[in-house]
Design brief:
With about 160 residues, the protein is mainly alpha-helical. The protein has helices spanning about 25-35, 45-70, 90-125, 140-145, 155-165, and strands spanning about 1-5, 10-15, 40, 45. It has a two-stranded antiparallel ribbon with strand order 1-2. It has a two-stranded antiparallel sheet with strand order 3-4. The longest helix has about 35 residues, at about 90-125. The radius of gyration is 20 Å and the shape is elongated.
Length: about 160
Amino acid sequence: MLRALDVPRIPLVLLADVQEVQVGTPLADVQRRHRPILAHGGDMDANAMRERLERERADLAMTVERIRERLAVPQRESGGDIALADQHPADVASETEARELDLARQTMFEARIGLIDEALRRLDRGEYGRCIVCGREIPEARLDLVPETPYCVEDAEREQQSSAR
């Protein structure tokens, strides 16, 4: 079921009434489990950070696997008993859009898994928490929010600007 939402400067947004969505670790669990990871004036508990990164990686990997399972079913067969030719074009378009969103999510989650794998390798080498561009220490607050980040705030902004071009 779709409902309309009026958003300034955007003519019309349709939102699906979603009953349940599960992607990764719930935010409340992340905050409760990881608050003490970076403590004592920036001294990092490497074991706790490794556990956090591995847990986030496992959550993302499970989500990617569920997406792959959904995408493994050909669109022609995903409509159940109703053949694709018998479906209304709007229903086919909705199914196509859902599959495209799944592909985008899969790509995004796989990229994040790659960043987590790189962070784990930096942790093994003793380089975790240092910017890979300038070598400065990454602020504790940034690592709390984005534990897989390889960049300090300044270099992250530069990277984002250069990739947008």
